[in-house]
Every structure is written in C-alpha cells, then in structure tokens.
C-alpha cells in the first residue's frame, strides 16, 4: 500500500452522536465522542482521499485540508447531508451513533416541570445506512458500525445484509477500554463470509486496521 | 473589597448539565456547558474561598488549588454530593442545569429499535435547590439560577421564595449571545425586593458581577 492509496477517491464519513431536541434546552443524546470517526477521517485524508465528514456535535476539530466537515445536530440533518454527498462518494463509512428515535413533538418553549411524571413519545428516525443501501451502486463500498451490548455477532450479521453493507465494524460495550470516551478500542470486522478480530489498540491504529481491510477489498 | 474577601468561607457550587440514562448508550441531556459555573468557581477561589464544585459532565477543567471538583453524572448523584457538603458551606450556588426528570426505568442493555414509536416515561427528579432550602440555616446564603424562555421575571420570583433562595440569577434564552455555549452572558439578578440588570459581558465578568453582589449581601 502506498501512502496515497486513496488518491482521487471520495470518502463520505459520518461521526459523533446526534442530539434530538425535546425543547430548546433538553435533548436525547448518546455517549459517542466521535473519536473513532475522526481518527478514520484523518487516516483516509493522509492516504490521499477527499473526505466529506458529516459530524454530529462533538468537541473534536480537524485541520487536515483533505477533510471537509459538515456539522449537523440531528439524525434528520445528518441524513440530508449524507444524501447530498452520497452519490459522488466511492466509499461510505457510517461511524456516527445516530439516534434511532426522536421526540415526536419538539416544544418551542422550555417544558416547565409540572406533574410527577412526564411521557415523551418518540418516533423512529430514518436508518441512514439502510436507506443509502437501497441506492448503492456496484462500484460503491459501504461500511457500517454497530454497537451491541448482547448477542453481538448475530445482530451485526443481520445488519450487514439488511443495510446492504460490505463490511460492519462491531464495537462491544463488554470489552473494557473499548468504546465510548476511551482512546482505545477493540473491534471485530464482519463481512458476509469472514470475521476478523483485533486486539485492544489506540483508535488511530484501529482506524488503520479498518482502512487496510477496505483497501484490500476495493483494490482486490 | 480586598482580593481575599472570601478567605475562610466555604462555597458549594454546582455546574454543568446532568445526564439521565435511558440505557447504557442513550441519555437525556441539556445544552449547559458548565462555563458559567466554572467561571464562578474560579473567581470565588481567586478571592480566597474554599470551593467545592459539584460538576456534571462537561469538557472543562480547573487547576485552581482552591477548588475541589466532585464529578457526577445524574441529578440524583448531584443531589447526594450536594447533601454531603451543604451543611458546612457558607454559600450555596446552584449554577448547574439539573434535569427535572429522569427515565423511570433504565434499561441495562441497549434498547433495540423495534416499533415505529417508543414511549419513555419520566419521573421527577429531586429539586436540589428547593430541597436544600428546607434545611438552610440563618447564616447560609443561597443563590439559584433560572433559565426561562418566557414569562422570565415572574417565574424567577416564584422560584426565589419557593426554594428559599437569597438571590436568583436569571438567564434568558431570548438574548442573543447569552446562555448556552457562548462565552458571553446577559443576566438579571433578582432579589426579594430588587432587580438588577446587566449588559452582555464575558462570563468571567458576569461571574464578578454576581460575586460582588453576594459579597455586599453577606458583608452588608
């Protein structure tokens, strides 16, 4: 692999959490920091890719000139940004932790505390990777991420086919030192006919492992 | 006012948001960054106070040796930490944006997306400032914060008496450049018989305004 293996290729990458507003003050969020997605974006860019990084709210910044950051807040905004750039991208990497549900109604004023109980009704967000899977062309390569707390491998395999993904990166919350907020991660990469397990590593090294496998597949 | 006006005094201060878990991955949060609370903590410490800073999840750090930081995540954890230190503190400053409600049930595994809709039942959290108000001694001084999106002043006055506060700092979401995420803030300080309005300023300067008024009252 040369240092410019992705030269001339466009990578569309999502990263971070989404925040789904309840009212102007409150939201439903998740513990994704975006570190894994940003590490991937940096590595792709170092290898010559033209990266479009659709990022949910994080505290991360990237200076790499090969990365164009599109900031979004909600799953719906992320979906629209992804739709805008998907067609021209050679590789899609869905590393964001997108909220599955959003509040059905968003209050335009801060909800006052009144009763002892309160019920929030949620409706499903679009499954971005699955929706994109339906429009994927033969020449496009799609990578999903899954975070599972039980029955990991079976769930990941199911997602692989349902979302028309070429590869899924599985994070398990069971591994100490892996996942949210950590600078290390322990992943399993699942393909239709193969499973690759890796040791606990720095996220920059994990990014390299993922990218190496993508490169083997698209150049193979 | 001398530079060590709070020497020998203990200040208990809350800052930041709280995160109320839905499951191991998701939570209900709010847009507080903790900047206002940390600015207050720094200023109190510079003026000689022994500061106990009970902080929700933020990206802020303080190096001041006069500040002891107690990290918490949920409103319940914040309440317990506050209870632990309240009795010995001369001044209480409730600058945190505490979640009013938490999910009734916290799932121990990530909730799988299934139906088109999902309902989350919430139950009320303890109102920390109000609960502490009931045990406040004559010599203790209590400062609350309120963020309102409408009918600000009337709501703030009501909180003042209900929570047995000496002073309430009102942030309005209506002021551009004020409130969440900004480095500036525009406040109104409400006392039982007086209202003080201030211009838009840096949060460090706002902290100074608040502290000046506290000092007038406790030394007055």
TrEMBL record, chains A, B:
Keywords: Ligase, Lyase
Coiled coil stretches, renumbered: none
One Pfam family cited in the UniProt record for this chain: DFP
Domain DNA/pantothenate metabolism flavoprotein C-terminal: 7-216
Keyword Signal: no
InterPro entries linked: CoaB-like_sf, CoaBC, DNA/pantothenate-metab_flavo_C
EC assignment: 4.1.1.36, 6.3.2.5
Gene Ontology molecular function: phosphopantothenate--cysteine ligase activity; phosphopantothenoylcysteine decarboxylase activity
TM region(s), chain numbering: none
Protein name: Bifunctional phosphopantothenoylcysteine decarboxylase/phosphopantothenate--cysteine ligase CoaBC
Organism from which the protein derives: Pontibacter rugosus
């Amino acid at each position: 692999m040369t240092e410019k293996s992705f030269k001339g290729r466009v990578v569309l990458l999502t990263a971070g959490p989404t925040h789904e507003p309840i009212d102007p003050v409150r939201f439903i969020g998740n513990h994704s920091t975006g570190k894994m997605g940003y590490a991937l974006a940096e590595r792709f860019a170092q290898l010559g890719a033209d990266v479009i990084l659709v990022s949910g709210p994080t505290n991360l910044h990237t200076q790499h000139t090969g990365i164009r950051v599109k900031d979004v807040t909600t799953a719906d905004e992320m979906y629209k940004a992804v739709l805008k750039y998907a067609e021209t991208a050679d590789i899609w990497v869905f590393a964001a932790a997108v909220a599955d549900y959003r509040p059905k109604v968003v209050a335009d004023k801060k909800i006052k505390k009144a009763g002892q109980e309160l019920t929030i009704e949620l409706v499903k967000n679009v499954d971005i990777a699955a929706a994109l899977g339906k429009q994927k062309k033969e020449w496009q390569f799609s990578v999903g991420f899954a975070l599972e707390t039980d029955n990991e491998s079976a769930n990941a395999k199911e997602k692989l086919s349902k979302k028309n993904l070429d590869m899924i990166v599985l994070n398990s919350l069971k591994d100490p030192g892996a996942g949210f907020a950590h600078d290390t991660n322990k992943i399993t990469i699942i393909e239709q006919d193969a499973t690759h397990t890796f040791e606990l590593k720095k996220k920059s090294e994990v990014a390299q492992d993922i990218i190496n496998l993508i490169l083997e597949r698209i150049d193979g």
